[in-house]
Amino acid sequence: HRGTETFPMRRLRLPAALLALLTGLMVALAATADLKDAGLALLVLDVPLAFAIPYVLLVPIRTYLVHCAVYAVVLVALLAAVGVPAGLLFGAVLSMLVAILLVLSSVRPSAWSMSVMWQAEEARDMQARLAVAEERLRFGRDMHDVLGRNLSVIALKSELAVELAQRGNAAAVDQMVEVQRIARASQQEVRDVVRGYREADLPTELMGARGVLQAAGI
Predict the structure, then answer these.
(1) Considering the chain, what percentage of its residues have pLDDT values greater than 90?
(2) Number of domains in the chain
(3) If you compute the radius of gyration of the chain from its CA atoms, what whole number of angstroms results?
């Protein structure tokens, strides 16, 4: 009834066979027993009603009405063939048709209401998953900001220290000390990101970019 997928009609073969069997038994009982008005009306009402309630949720409304109309015509023909009086037959079939319409007007709206509730629940679940994904993206961006900038500075200063060391320049030690300081600062910033204490802002990013440029000698 939600229209999201097609119900495999082959699954209705067994219920259809059961309905045909019960209808045959009902017609045979009407032909052999002395049924009162209420008895026949209850039989004609209960047998199709048990199948109409789930069936109305499995097929489109038009298909449901067409199949119910065909069933009503066949049932009237069978009951008339076994000699059920016209007045009794009319009352019983009228009761069945009223029940079929009541099923259509009550079961499908109830199922639609449940469907709306399920969709709302799915929407809440999706919103929660999106919130988690957004938080992960924010965390990833913060980690990239922290590690990307600092690793760039560490790489540049390490290259500079190597060149100075190859030349025998004592300033290489100062560069490695600075690399060590930046590495420790990076550890602290990573801890702050994990704890949710760090918020990247424009001044911080500008200072980081300036540090990278200065380390590169620009």
Answers:
(1) 0
(2) 2
(3) 39
